[in-house]
Specification:
Elements: E1 2-3, H1 4-10, E2 15-19, E3 22-28, E4 35-40, E5 43-50, E6 53-57, E7 60-64, E8 69-72, E9 75-81, E10 88-94, H2 96-106, E11 123-126, H3 130-143, H4 151-168, H5 170-180, H6 187-194, H7 201-207, H8 212-223, H9 227-245, H10 250-256, H11 262-273, H12 277-283
Parallel strand pairs: 1-4
Antiparallel strand pairs: 2-3, 3-10, 4-9, 5-8, 5-10, 6-7, 6-9, 8-11
Length: 286
């Protein structure tokens, strides 16, 4: 899978600004594959200027077109691309540090639209508003201008985006509030939301904002088994559930649950369940 955050952070050909670990840019996708896998260690928000894309995570899929806004939590997704019109977006890769700083500054100053129960999610559509429309168009002026705005202005603009979200979106406000109460992402949430993607252990460690050694140590403490074993078992459990409850082909399910190829999928599936995928599906049909 492509490290999307690293690509936008290091590629000088994009119209982009960077402040500490937060990156914002105007982005036209240069990849012509119909389907690609990406991951990002930062949450990011997409505002579509033209074209459309479908983003698929373990919890659902979202198709976004011009004028629509999608917020994606740090993690991986499969993107389906359409080629009827060039896809162009504004992207804001928001660091946890900036989110925490903004939340602390806003507590007691603006009403926080918090939900009583924190809802787990991987992505969510953001309701457009006149304020957000105005914000994105003001950012286009900076992206397409000659000079980079001074850092103090850029920081204020990024916090303006976050304050808009905090004030109007209860799901995101509640999530941002939870981030402000912890110094690192939840390892459990990262793993539960991303185990079915073809990521290396180093990638999972990066998503969790931990070194590889710290990630492995904390993972064993949490799950009482090594990460590689847990990931394979969870992928097979998910594959078995899809086999029983959908009409997808075995090869489609193998891809969707993060296996390298069909033979590897069948071999691991049989090791864990005692049956190959076809036999398992037949044995569950009544």
């Amino acid at each position: 899978m492509l490290n999307f955050y690293k690509i936008v952070k290091e590629n000088l050909s994009f119209n982009r600004f960077e402040f500490r670990d937060t990156v914002c840019l105007e982005y036209t996708c240069p990849i012509d594959a119909e389907q690609i896998g990406i991951f990002s260690r930062n949450d990011y928000l997409v505002y579509v200027l033209s074209g459309k894309k479908t983003y698929k995570t373990v919890k659902g899929e979202w198709t976004v077109g011009p004028g629509q806004i999608l917020y994606l939590k740090k993690g991986a997704e499969i993107i389906h691309q359409y080629f009827d019109d060039e896809y162009c977006m504004l992207g804001f890769f928001l660091s946890d540090e900036l989110i925490r700083e903004t939340m602390e500054e806003m507590k007691g100053k603006v009403p926080l639209a918090l939900k009583q129960d924190q809802e787990e999610f991987t992505a969510t559509m953001v309701e457009p508003s006149g304020y957000l429309e105005g914000y994105f168009h003001s950012m286009l002026h900076y992206f397409r201008g000659i000079d980079r705005p001074p850092d103090p202005i850029l920081v204020l603009k990024l916090k303006e985006l976050l304050i808009n979200l905090i004030s109007t979106d209860p799901l995101l406000a509640t999530y941002f509030n939870s981030l402000s109460e912890s110094d690192r992402p939840s390892l459990r949430q990262i793993m539960e939301n991303n185990y079915c993607f073809k990521l290396r252990l180093e990638d999972y460690a990066e998503l969790c904002h931990r070194s590889l050694s710290s990630f492995k140590r904390e993972f064993r403490q949490l799950y009482k088994e090594p990460p590689g074993k847990w990931i394979m078992r969870r992928r097979v459990e998910r594959a078995a559930n899809i086999l029983v409850n959908s009409r997808q082909s075995v090869s489609e399910i193998a891809f969707e649950t993060g296996f390298e190829d069909l033979s590897h999928f069948s071999r691991v599936f049989k090791q864990i369940t005692g049956k190959n995928p076809t036999e398992f599906k037949k044995s569950t049909v009544f």
